[in-house]
Amino acid sequence: MNSDKKIGIALSGGGVRGISHLGVLKALNQRGIFPNRISGSSAGAIAGTLYAAGHHPDEILEIIVKTNYFKFLRPAISWTGILKMDTVEELFKKYLPENSFESLQLPMTVAVTDIKRAKVVYFSEGELIKPLMASSCIPGMFDPIAIGKHYYVDGGVLNNLPVEPLDGVCDVIIGVNCNHLPVEHNIKNIKSLIERTVIMSMNYNVYSRKDKCDFFIEPKGLAKYGVFDIKKAQEIFQSGYETALSYIDENKEISELALKTKVKA
Could you tell me the keywords of this UniProt record (predicted)? Predict the structure, then answer.
């Protein structure tokens, strides 16, 4: 076993499905595998940042369920979105009080989309909360987040599995996608058609980066859960946890990343 390898983990976006990342992280930790550099888009950025801040996966799950992230949103009176995220800022400050990337226990990179310049931007230093809000700012649903002179929306629009900040920096990269789509033989209505099409688009830019990952974990069938389906949080967490445990058992190479000492519960 080699405990000196730099292990990076890239976490995809996917709304409440991103809770599965916490289950994956818990399983990795229980098997002695501790990522020491993280990148994420949208929900993956939120899960990754709270983990990088030192919160245990079970604790983060409790925070998400207890606070019900989405109740902090309020209507936006503008043409750019129907909801504002400014009240969410106060929620993040409660759990990330120092509001800087430098205050985190692990290096973290947050992917966002610059809506005017049509490009991916990576934040990894300075102010933390604004980029974190921007990374989960779903276009058309939320007002874009202004940082300096630029306006940003969900990182998953252009990069839903940001492995690039880890490439060339880490010895090993683990990619985790929380939007697996099962085969669907019956599209029932326009809503399901739109949802499926959006997830297909998100997954395309995930799978185009899959080859950059040394290991790729994808809990099956998570796309059946709605983006805001917080009532299924425990179920989604468990799916990530069980999938990751099975993946580790079936892949000797990833188990060799385990530390010989200090395994968190």
Answer: Hydrolase, Lipid degradation, Lipid metabolism
pLDDT in tens, 16-57: 999 999 999 999 999 999 999 999 999 999 999 999 999 999
Query: For 11, what's the count of Cα atoms within 13 Å in the CB-facing half-sphere?
Result: 33
Q: What is the pLDDT of residues 97-138, one digit of tens each?
A: 999 999 999 999 999 999 999 999 999 999 999 999 999 998
Domains and CATH numbers, the chain: 7-256 (3.40.1090.10)
Q: Is the predicted pLDDT of residue 76 greater than 70, yes or no?
A: no
Write the DSSP assignment of the chain as a string of letters. Answer: --TT--EEEEE---GGGGHHHHHHHHHHHHTT---SEEEEETHHHHHHHHHHTT--HHHHHHHHHHHTGGGG-EE--SSS-SEE-HHHHHHHHHHSTT-BGGGSSS-EEEEEEETTTTEEEEE-SSB-HHHHHHHT--BTTBPPEEETTEEEEEGGGT-SS--TTTTTT-SEEEEE---PPPP-S---SHHHHHHHHHHHHHHHHHHTTGGG-SEEE--TTGGGS-TT-GGGHHHHHHHHHHHHHHHHHH-HHHHTT--SS----
pTM over 0.85: yes
Cβ proximity of 213 and 163 under 8 Å: yes
Q: Which residues are catalytic?
A: 42, 154
**pLDDT tens digit sequence for 181-196:** 777 657 778 877 877 7
* Paired tokens of 223: 């796309």
Please calculate the CA angle 185-19-237 and round it to the nearest 5 degrees. Answer: 80
